[in-house]
Amino acid sequence: MLRMRRDRAVTDPRASCTGSPERLMHRIDDLLVQPGTTLREALAAMSRGARNILLLVDGSGTLRRTVTDGDLRRLLLDGTALEATLDVLPERRPWTVVDGTGPEAVIA
Fold first, then answer.
1. What CA–CA distances, in Å, run from 9 to 78, 84, 90?
2. Is the N end or the C end of the chain the one with fewer CB atoms within 10 Å?
3. Separation of alpha carbons 89 and 33, rounded Å
4. SS (H, E, C) the chain
5. Non-local CB neighbours of 73 within 8 Å, separated by 6+ positions
6. How far is Cα 98 from Cα 67, in angstroms, rounded to an integer?
7. 90-102 pLDDT, tens per residue?
8. How far apart are CA 108 and CA 62, in angstroms?
9. CB 85 within 8 A of CB 32
């Protein structure tokens, strides 16, 4: 499982995000949510981060799955309350790669 390590996100010179390390860390923090986050909070986080994706992490920072605007929309259309937590999402193992994996291996 991928762990969202703040020190790695800040110091990795190969990171595709531009800007200062503090700004990069702020961007990542805007995308992180916990299983106990409500749908309302997730929608607000998505709006604040100006992205259509969130990263659902557990208490140790392990990536559990991604949460897209479509995931939240489907829950709402199915009648899930805004105060329900992201625990209602089905488990979906994220695809990850280890540091140093080349582009050819990633798309293979």
1. 36, 30, 27
2. C
3. 13
4. CCECCHHHHHHCCCCCCCCCHHHHHHHHHHHEECCCCEHHHHHHHHHHHCCCEEEEECCCCEEEEEEEHHHHHHHHHCCCCCCCEHHHCCCCCCCCCCCCCCHHHHHC
5. none
6. 21
7. 988 888 888 888 8
8. 24
9. no
